[in-house]
Amino acid sequence: MAVNDKQKRYLRGLAHPLKPVVMIGNKGLTDSVIAEANNALEHHELIKVRVSGADKKQQNDMLSAIADETQSDIVMVIGHIGALYRAAKEPTIQLPK
Fold it and tell me: The whole model's pTM is what?
């Protein structure tokens, strides 16, 4: 499910106070990082991911790859931190229409 612009603004507001729960280090995007992001999305729906040690294009590519692998939406990217959203089977976050 793709989120629209109004929903992205709402989710950005919710993501702002969150701390990153998934970190991508010098080894880059590994299977364990994707598994951890998938697990975090199952529990939280909205997470932040920190990408370290890469230039801007590599950071965006890694965030896009995580979003593709976890079937989530990129809500925001600020610096080296991105926020991802995926609705749970029983969502706790109620998105505006």
Answer: 0.91
